[in-house]
Design brief:
This protein folds into two domains: 60 residues, no CATH class; 253 residues, SGNH hydrolase (Rossmann fold, 3-Layer(aba) Sandwich). The protein contains 14 helices and nine strands. It has a five-stranded parallel beta sheet with strand order 6-5-7-8-9, with helices on both faces. Helix content is 43%, strand content 14%. A hairpin with a 3-residue loop joins strand 1 and strand 2.
Length: 348
């Protein structure tokens, strides 16, 4: 009874105390912050394989919940239908509608379903649209998304959303599909500690949310390289590979048009790069111009809303930290698409 605690005993007691404190904090936060699971996109996105087209991400059928950006940019309800698409209507209603195909931007990342540019265009035209978009995919994935639509369902027109920042590449979609290469995998690596903690612990999400919203701490974390700077400059292709990448991208977009019955109006809505809108960046300006020209050679209309985005300004049209469009950005894109679709005989 008179023996003094050993160093080992003190260490064990300290570790056990810390562990119990963490577990208690985790339990309390799960009750006090019931929305802690909303910061993980993997809850509503999965990977599937489409025969002859390889892997592609789609929504998880039947998901109905909220998705939040942990720095406070948005909190939005996501509802996925039984076919894995963000539509209020089942897939058997897609026939005869205007189809919008794309990645997270077309999916409406961070905005309400009614604010997605496909929904905006439909309201302006007074005609029904159908959204066939999924976060994390690319031009090869767009082919897969189209290919998996029910046999017999045909659109009255198709608009492809093309993101200059991450959709331009040296594609060979057929070769990738033959190798069963996963295209645009949104199923994040659960071995990544950050992903694991985001998915499984309320405590981590509490601190991530709290720290990111304190300006001084947020700037310090950026300086230490622990989190990324908002809207950090990045390129998907290089100056040297630009022309080749553009031509291969345009060829795969033409392949999408060739998947459709002859005569269906088809256009590509180009999302101008943040860095051209914000900084008048010459690389992305040239990339956009080359993409428009490459599509024109293939008689594919390019819908280019750059002037409207420049007029609106970068900050109002994009989220503060997230790289996606705000509701205003979707309004601009929706108007651009609606104007072209109206010229094709859609709407009153």
């Amino acid at each position: 009874m008179n023996e003094r605690p050993t160093v080992k005993g003190i260490a064990v007691a300290f570790v056990l105390g810390c562990l119990l404190t963490v577990l208690a904090a985790e339990g309390i936060l799960r009750i006090a912050m019931p929305h802690w699971r909303e910061f993980y996109s993997g809850w509503f996105v999965r990977n599937i394989r489409v025969p002859d087209y390889g892997a592609v991400p789609t929504g998880r059928p039947g998901f109905d919940g909220y998705f939040s950006q942990n720095n406070g940019d948005f909190r939005v309800r996501i509802r996925i239908n039984d076919f894995g698409l963000r539509n209020p209507d089942p897939v058997d209603k897609a026939d005869g509608r205007i189809w919008f195909i794309g990645d997270s931007m077309a999916f409406g990342w961070g905005v309400k379903q009614t604010e997605m540019y496909s929904s905006v265009a439909g309201r302006l035209l007074g005609v029904p649209t159908y959204n066939i978009a999924s976060p994390g995919t690319n031009v090869c994935g767009y082919q897969a998304l189209l290919a998996r639509m029910p046999e017999g369902a045909k659109p009255r027109a198709v608009v492809i959303g093309l993101i200059l920042e991450n959709d331009i590449g040296d594609y060979d979609c057929r070769a990738a599909a033959e190798k069963d290469v996963q295209i645009g995998d949104m199923t994040e690596n659960v071995a990544d500690p950050k992903i694991f903690l985001t998915q499984n612990t309320a405590l981590y999400n509490f601190f991530a949310v709290s720290l990111k919203r304190v300006s001084f701490i947020n700037k310090s974390l950026i300086a230490l390289g622990l989190i990324k700077r908002p809207h950090a400059y990045a390129r998907q292709t290089s100056e040297v590979r630009m022309t080749v990448s553009v031509e291969r991208t345009a060829a795969e977009l033409e392949a999408i048009r060739n998947m459709l019955p002859t005569g269906i109006p088809f256009a590509v809505l180009i999302a101008p790069a943040r860095f051209e809108i914000r900084d008048d960046d010459p690389f992305f300006r040239k990339l956009r111009q080359e993409m428009v020209a490459a599509l024109a050679k293939r008689n594919i209309p390019a819908l280019d809303p750059i002037n409207e985005f420049l007029s609106a300004g970068f900050k109002p049209s994009h989220f503060t930290h997230d790289g996606h469009w705000s509701p205003l950005g979707h309004k601009i894109a929706g108007r651009t698409a609606a104007e072209w679709l109206h010229r094709q005989g859609n709407g009153g």
